[in-house]
Amino acid sequence: MSIFDIFRKKKKLKARWSKYYTKDEINIKIPNISLYDQVLNSKNKYPDNIAYQYFNKKVKYKKFVKQIDKVAISFKKLNLKKGDIVTICLPNIPEALISFYALNKIGVIANMVHPLSAIEEIKESLIKTNSKYLIMLDMHYSKIKDTIKSTNVKKVIFTSPKDSMNIFMKIGYTLMQIGKYEKYPRNKFFMKFNKLYKHTYKSNITFKKYGKDTPCVILHSGGTSGTPKNVVLQNRAFILGARQEEIVLKRLKPGDCCLAIMPNFHGFGLSVTIHTPLALGCYTILIPQFNGKKFDTLFKKTRPTCVLGVPTIFEALISYKNEKNLDLSFLKYVVSGGDVLNKNLEDRINDYLKDHNCTAKIVQGYGLSEALAAVTLAFDDINKSGSVGIPLPGNYIKIINTSTRNENPANVVGEICINSKALMMGYLNDDAETNEALQIHNDGHIWLHTGDLGYMDEDGFVFVKGRLKRMIITSGYNVYPSHIESVIEAHEAVLQCTVIGVPHPYKKEVPKAFIVLKDGYKGVFIKAQIRDYIRKNLAKYMIPKEIVFRKQLPKTKLGKVDFKKLESDIGEDDDE
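The structure corresponding to this sequence follows.
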C-alpha cells in the first residue's frame, strides 16, 4: 500500500510567510488539465505570440500546437498509449519540446535523459523505465548501436540540431558535421523525426482528455541516498509551478521571453524556463549548448525578459566582456537556483547589472526534482540577502530536528522538509526509497525529507546551509560521490574508491577520485583503462577531474574514511 493511500487526519498547516500573499494565493487551486492543455490555452488566447525561438527562427503558438498535434497523431499510430514511457534524450531543441507535449497529449510519460549520458547510463535508464521508444540525436547513434537490442525499445527516432534551423544555418551545420560521427542505418528500427509530421492529415484519431493527476514525466535524482532514482511527477506539479510563477513574477507578461539555458532534463529547466513561459503566453529561447564565455553576446542577441540559471552561469556573465556598452535594461527578472549564491558573488552580479542599466537584482530560489524544482523564491522586494526566499504559494516548509523529527524554532538549523501539491508520486519501482523520502508526520501530512540542512527565520525566509549526506554541486548539477564510487569500484582493478569535491574556478566543484588498486594491478596503463571505463559509464559532468592512486585511504578513529584529510591531499600517486 502506498503511503498516499493511508487514511489520516490532517492538521491545518501554518505559514509564517503568509503575510506576503493573499488568502486566495495561499490556497492556490490546480485546474484539472494537462500540460498540453496549458499550452493549448496559450495558443487560443495568443495565437500570434511567439512560442519558442531557436537561433534566428521564431515559431508562433498556432504553428507550435500544429506541430505538437501532428506528432501526437503519429505517436498514436505507433501504438503508444496512456502510461507507456518514451525516453527523450535531447538538448534544448524544438523537437524536444514538440515530443514532450505530444506525448503529454496522449497520456504517455516522458523519461528525460541527459544527451551526454554515458552508454551504460542510457541503457540502464531504458531498461529501468521499460521505455518503448527512444528519441535522440543522430550524432549519438554510436552510443546505442551495440546496446539497444538488450532493451525493450521498439524503435529509435533520430533528429538533428539542424532540423529546425533556417536553410542557411542548416547548410552551414551540415558542412561542419561531415565525417564527424557514424550515421545510423536506414531500416524499420531507426526512424527520422521529420517523418512524424507526414501523412497525419487524413487521420480520424480521437484523443482522450487527461487531467492533473496523470503521470507525465520522469526526472532523475540521487535523492538523499545518492543512488540514481527515477522521479515520477504528475501534470499537477508543472501546472502548479506555472501558476505560482504567475503570482510572484507579476511583471512577467504574455509576449515576454525567458532564456532556456537550463536543460530540459533538469527539473528547473523543464518546469521554470520551458513550461512556465509557454503556460503564460510568453516564449522560451532555446539554447541547445550554452557557452558561458559568450553570455553577454547571447544577451545582446536575444534580449530576454527573464533569465534563470545556476551561480556559475552568472559568474561567467561578469567574467567575460565581449560586448562594449551592453544594455540590460530589458531584463525584468534574474533568478539563481541549483546551488547557494554566496554573498560576494551576489554583490558582484548586482553591481554588474546596475552598471549595465538593469533595474532588477539577482534573487535566489530553492528546490529539487522530487518537488519539481522550484519550492521557494525571493522576488521583487520580498528578499533577504543570503536567503533562498519564502515558500511559493501553496508550498509549505518546516525545519526539523533530525533526531526527534520535531519542528525547530526560528533560526535553528535542521533538515528542510517540504509539503506541496507538486511532490512526486514516488521513485519508479522503488517503494523503500519512496517511503524514506516521503514520510507522514504527526500532523497527518506527507513531507518530503530533502536531506538539505537549513533554517527559517521569523518571517519565513529560508537559508540553506548544506547537506546531511555527501554531495558535489558542479555547474549546478548534483553529483553524488557514492554513485561515482560504486561505478569505479565495479572495475576489476579497483579495490576501493572514495570521491570528494575539490574547488574549481568556474564550475565551483569537480569530483576527484582516490583509488586503492587490487594486488597485481599498477601503473599508468591501468589508470588509462580506468579513465576509459569511467567515460563509458558516467555522464561527462560526473567524471572525476583527477584520479589519484593510494596504497590505502586515511581513516578516522572510528575506522571511517577521513574526508577532511583527503580534502587537503594534493600529492601524486603513491609509489608502486
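The longest strand covers residues 446-456.
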